[in-house]
Design goal:
By secondary structure, this protein is an alpha+beta fold.
């Protein structure tokens, strides 16, 4: 054998980068190149590559022995075949032999993949002059190379991305297991190293195979230097993120590296997140629309509406309810019921809690009180509380409905008042008719009797008795008083009661009126307490006399058992006051406020024995007020009455 078989002939590097039809994995060739091997055998014992010198020494004359079993090729080198068999069992070693008078030494190394599978055996042969051991440095370099190769393969196969490397001749120079798994490519298909065949097998898995294939082929062109990143969608729903960049040796592009990352879960998560965000946005928009509709309804509702949470805070309310509290609704949202309505909180808070605890509404609760908007005015409401529930039945809070019924209550009170007044008017009318009939009949009966007696006397040719004439005239005067009272009442109602005022000395005026009452009743006495100074008022003499006469007549009339009627005139500040006090039956306290009303008669003054139409005090009240004065009464039942009237003094 001639030549040193440790010298790798030219063309080995090309062989190391190429792939035969049945070539072993790329790593085996890479290790062989690093060891500068003379012989490479795959795990099945077939020759992958053999140095031509060694092939000639083995007696192989029929071309390259690649692909042939080593038993067939190395039949003339049994010592070498034995070493290779040992190495295929996983044990490295050194061996020596003789061939054509030369001593040969061989270093035999088994090569393993990252998963522990043996890929094949590399052998390096050299001629020896004298037996010697391989240098320690060479052995250490070989071990270091094997370690680095193992780390490289482990790293390449452990990355999460699928990676494939294709040279410029569209041959697969490297790939990892993740790439093979992602695309479902068989070992046989990848062993062919034909990138176009692998692409044709993978394309049907893609949703858009034409675009997928065209994009890969375009970037396989030698002129394609751009880095690229895009998304590949598969028919089974998976989504790959693909990156492509040129493989360089120095400044020269020698191929292209493709990496595929499975982003299916990430993309689905992003899609789901986008869907959820869209759904959330849509729900938020619908919620805002619902709130807008709700706010429009709430704020235009004529009743107070509010939603109170479980912690008794206002979560929503309308302007009508906030106005009752004297605030704007923006000021009340989020605030406690007790803060906003302290005057009713002790009443309504237990009711709200009761509704939330029992789930039963409280409807039509009547409430009365004052609000800041109308201080001092009593207002009335119908209040209802309803539980607010979720679709699952859980209680979120309380809905409050407040309907103001103040106007209705006032209207009802007014109707009741008018009804009472109408009934009272009917009663007064009936009483008046009864009294009027009695009062008119009372003077008419004796008047008729006296007139009949005078007629009889005239018919008999006798002189008419004077007392009959006087009695008849008295009854006529009484009738005149009744008629005048009716006329005055009508004038007052029509606003036509006229006054003719003049300066009037009150002391002399009272004396003139009293002169007509000295002999009115033998059972009564009349006392006049005169003022200590002249009291001059501007008054209508006749109308003022009508007032004083009426008060004196009432004092005599309502003192049936007799007694003293006390009359007093005095100065009080800038007014003249006249008081008439009797010792009669008095007036019930609840009747005193109505004494000066038209047709009113106290209940304790029966028609019989106490004549009158109930107009005297009504007329007196109007006359005094027209003079700019006032009239009132002080009385105790069974203890008599005192009537006062005051008039401004003339300046």
């Amino acid at each position: 054998m001639k030549g040193d078989m440790s010298t790798v002939p030219p063309g080995w590097e090309v062989l190391a980068r190429s792939r035969a039809t049945h070539s072993p994995p790329e790593l085996l060739l890479q290790v062989a190149a690093g060891l500068r091997a003379t012989l490479v055998v795959d795990s099945r014992g077939r020759i992958v590559w053999m140095d031509p010198v060694l092939a000639g020494a083995a007696g192989w004359r029929d071309g390259a022995p690649a692909g042939h079993p080593m038993e067939e090729v190395l039949g003339g080198l049994p010592w070498l075949k034995h070493a290779l068999d040992t190495a295929l069992e996983g044990t490295e070693g050194l061996c020596e032999g003789h061939e054509h008078g030369q001593r040969l030494s061989a270093v035999v190394v088994p090569v393993f993949g990252e998963d522990g599978t043996q890929l094949g055996v590399c052998a390096r042969l050299r001629t020896l002059d004298t037996p010697k051991q391989p240098p320690a440095g060479e052995r250490q370099a070989r071990e270091h190379l094997e370690h680095q190769t193992s780390v490289l393969r482990a790293t390449f196969d452990s990355i999460a991305d699928g990676v494939i490397v294709v040279d410029l001749s569209r041959r697969i120079t490297a790939f990892n297991k993740r790439f093979q798994e992602m695309w479902g490519l068989t070992d046989e298909m990848l062993e062919e190293r034909d990138a176009e065949k692998a692409l044709a097998s993978a394309a049907p898995l893609v949703k858009d195979p034409e675009r997928f294939v065209a994009g890969i082929l375009r970037r396989m062109l030698p002129s394609s230097e751009a880095e690229n990143s895009d998304i590949v969608e598969l028919r089974d729903g998976r989504v790959f993120e693909r990156k492509s960049l040129p493989q360089r040796l120095g400044d020269t592009i020698i191929g292209r590296v493709w990496s595929y990352r499975d982003v299916t879960v990430e993309r689905h998560a992003q899609a789901e997140q986008a869907r959820l965000l869209a759904a959330e946005q849509s729900a938020r928009e619908r919620l805002e629309e619902s709130f807008a509709v709700l706010d429009t309804f709430l704020n235009h509702a004529p009743i107070g509406l509010g939603f109170i949470g479980k912690d008794l805070r206002f979560l929503r309310l309308n302007d009508a309810l906030a106005a009752l509290h004297g605030r704007r609704r923006e000021e009340e949202i989020g605030r406690l019921v007790r803060e906003m309505t302290p005057h009713v909180a002790s009443t309504v808070e237990p009711l709200m809690r009761q509704v939330m605890e029992t789930g039963r509404p409280i409807i039509g609760l009547d409430m009365t009180g004052e609000v800041p908007a109308t201080p001092g005015q009593q207002r009335h409401w119908h209040v209802s509380y309803y539980p607010v529930r979720t679709a699952g039945g859980g209680i979120l809070g309380v809905g409050a409905v407040v309907v103001e019924v103040t106007a209705e209550r006032h209207a009802q009170a007014e109707r009741e008042r008018l009804l009472r007044e109408a009934r009272e008017a009917v009663r007064i009318r009936d009483d008046f008719l009864s009294i009027a009939a009695h009062e008119l009949k009372t003077p008419l009966t004796p008047l008729k009797l006296h007139l009949q007696m005078m007629k009889a006397q005239v018919g008999a040719g006798r002189l008419v008795a004077q007392h009959h004439v006087d009695k008849a005239l008295t009854q006529v005067s009484r009738l005149a008083v009744l008629v005048n009272d009716l006329l005055d009442a009508s004038r007052i109602q029509a606003g036509r009661l006229e006054l003719c005022r003049e300066p009037l000395s009150l002391r002399e005026f009272v004396r003139e009126v009293l002169s007509d009452f000295r002999s009115t009743s033998p059972l009564h006495s009349l006392e006049f307490e005169e003022p200590g100074e002249p009291l001059v008022v501007m008054a209508d003499r006749g109308r003022l006399a009508q007032v004083l006469t009426n008060l004196l007549e009432n004092a005599f009339k309502y003192s049936p058992t007799g007694g003293t009627v006390h009359l007093r005139a005095e100065r009080v500040g800038g007014e003249a006051r006249v008081s008439v006090r009797d010792e009669g039956i008095g007036i019930p306290e609840d009747q005193q406020a109505h004494l000066f009303e038209r047709f009113f008669r106290a209940r304790n003054a029966p028609i019989s024995g106490f004549g009158g139409l109930g107009l005297g005090l009504y007329i007196c009240h109007d006359i005094i007020e027209r003079h700019g004065g006032r009239i009132w009464v002080e009385s105790r039942l069974e203890h008599g009455s005192t009537f006062h009237f005051s008039l401004p003094l003339a300046s």
